[in-house]
Design goal:
This protein has a domain of about 240 residues: NAD(P)-binding Rossmann-like Domain (Rossmann fold, 3-Layer(aba) Sandwich). It has 13 helices and twelve strands. Strands 3-2-1-4-5-6-10 form a seven-stranded parallel β-sheet, with helices on both faces.
Length: about 350
């Protein structure tokens, strides 16, 4: 049995589905079900005795303590986080509460639970913390990619809150001996991603003939990681990672935002042609404050130590992603609710 936090979100849900398919062992999923946490993401597990859902907040320490004592997991995989930079600019308080205070609460309960375990269970236990490359700040066009020893320099409230959570996890290992592992990933994409993020936003706007908003000059660079590859990297880190270590997980696929948008449009022109090329909908909008210019991950450590590397090329992963959204209209309609439309209006209308 493992406990997953935030397992109804994009990466968490993909991980739960992959875990049960690959490992076959039970999962307890603790999720608050905020706007991006969607029970429909885990519909394939309905009636599966290996999947247990617990609706709750990781800040509810009584809930967390009860789940740990009842289910006796050998690992906690911590995804639960507010994760959208634009939302953190509009409302940073929620990011501090979930990402920093929530991680602290979870660490405290994990430590208390771990201290009750006898060997060999105590020696087997792991706390795996899932983080982001955004904690490292921004790179120049010729700078080497982020490694695990790159100094932290977060530039958004989101990145700062994740950096704070990373530091807490590190401190709990070095101070208390809690067996932690941290992973820092690059930009994920794939099925089940809430359409506030670039790729699903562009897919859905294009399908509806709406403008495709591109911040600034569109030349901000990100390293794109297919979510299935990310899940495999987390499983490898959990199974083989050295305690107290950090592993960067990247896709080896640096692309500008404009390149990504044009790639999505080209696939849609082929699979869902409109009266004109979808790229005609591209609209440049005012850049967001503090927009980091480039992220890139050096994933040599996880390849060297754990044998992991991405299997998907960006082109193949993107095609799978577009095909998934085209085939799952009901899921899309379910998540693009009034609240989602209000968010899009508040974030883009004034740009």
């Amino acid at each position: 049995m493992i406990v997953v936090t935030g397992g109804a979100g994009f990466i968490g849900a993909n991980f739960v589905l992959d875990w049960i398919a690959a490992a076959g062992t039970p999962v307890v999923n603790v999720d608050k079900l905020t706007y991006a946490g969607n029970p429909a993401n885990l519909a394939p597990l309905k009636g599966d005795a290996r999947y247990v859902f617990a609706h709750g907040d990781i800040n509810d320490r009584g809930l967390v303590a009860g789940l740990l004592q009842r289910h006796q997991p050998y690992a906690i995989v911590h995804f639960a986080a507010e994760s959208h930079v634009d939302r953190s600019i509009h409302g940073p308080g929620e990011f501090v509460q979930t990402n920093v205070v929530g991680t602290f609460s979870l660490l405290e309960e994990a430590r208390a639970y771990w201290n009750t375990l006898a060997e060999p269970a105590k020696g087997r236990f792991r706390f795996l913390h899932v983080s982001t490359d955004e904690v490292y700040g921004s790179l120049g066009s010729n700078d080497p990619a982020f490694s695990e020893t790159t100094a932290y320099a977060p530039n958004s409230p989101y990145a700062a809150s994740k950096a704070g959570s990373d530091h807490l996890v590190r401190a709990y290992h070095h101070t208390y001996g809690l067996p932690t592992i941290t992973t820092n990933c690059s930009n994920n994409y794939g099925p089940l991603q809430f359409p506030e993020k670039l790729i699903p936003l562009i897919i859905l706007n294009a399908l509806n003939g709406k403008p495709l908003p591109v911040y600034g000059d569109g030349k901000n660079v990100r390293d794109w990681l297919y979510v299935g590859d990310h899940c495999a990297g987390i499983r490898a880190a959990l199974a083989q990672g050295r305690l107290g270590e950090t592993y960067n997980i990247g896709g080896n696929s640096e692309k500008t935002n404009l390149e990504v948008v044009h790639a999505v449009c080209a696939i849609l022109d082929e699979l869902h042609p409109a009266g004109a090329p979808h790229a005609k909908l591209i609209t440049f909008v005012k850049d967001r404050p503090g927009h980091d210019r480039r992220y890139a991950i050096d994933a040599a450590k996880i390849k060297r130590e754990l044998g992991w590397e991405p299997r998907e090329r960006f082109e193949s992963g993107l095609r799978k992603t577009v095909e998934w959204y085209l085939a799952h209209g009901e899921w899309v309609r379910g998540v693009t609710s009034g609240a989602y439309r209000q968010w899009i209006a508040s974030n883009y209308a004034a740009r």
